[in-house]
Amino acid sequence: MNTSFLLLSVVIGFILGIFSGLVPGIHTNTFSFILAAFSPILDELGFSPVCVAAIIISNALTHTFLDIIPSVFLGAPDATHHWLCCPGTRCCWTGMV
């Protein structure tokens, strides 16, 4: 396994996690299923199954930390973030953020 492919996989997962964390409606499972479907093609390109797993794990970790941002600034939290967003949304509406 090439270390540069592993590092590139982590960076790709990080970028996908930023996208899935900041865009409402896109979830990390969406990218996981897409990557699982395209894993034979990625294997031909040099990305081993360990690299695909690294993309999925770094995507999930980044998504976890950035998922709260749209809930606070769009004012539409989901069921898991409603208790975190009320003070943040109030601060955003009053211009304190």
Would you summarize the structure shown here?
The chain is mainly alpha-helical and 97 residues long. The protein is 76% helix and 0% strand.
Strand-pairing-aware structural class: mainly alpha
Number of strands: 0
Overall pLDDT, averaged? 82
- Shape descriptor reads elongated
Q: What is the straight-line distance between the termini? A: 45 Å
Report the uncertain regions.
Answer: none
Largest sheet: none
Q: What Rg do the Cα atoms give? A: 16 Å
Helical content class:
over 70%
The count of helical stretches stands at 6
Order of helices and strands: HHHHHH
Share in β-strands: under 5%
Written account of the structure:
- The structure is a single chain.
- With 97 residues, the protein is mostly helical.
- The protein has helices spanning 3-22, 28-37, 39-44, 49-66, 68-74, 82-94.
- Helix 1 (3-22) runs parallel beside helix 4 (49-66) and helix 5 (68-74) crosses helix 6 (82-94).
- The chain is elongated.
- The model has no long low-confidence stretch (mean pLDDT 82).
Helix-strand blueprint:
Elements: H1 3-22, H2 28-37, H3 39-44, H4 49-66, H5 68-74, H6 82-94
Keywords, separated by commas or semicolons:
mainly alpha, 6 helices, 0% strand, elongated
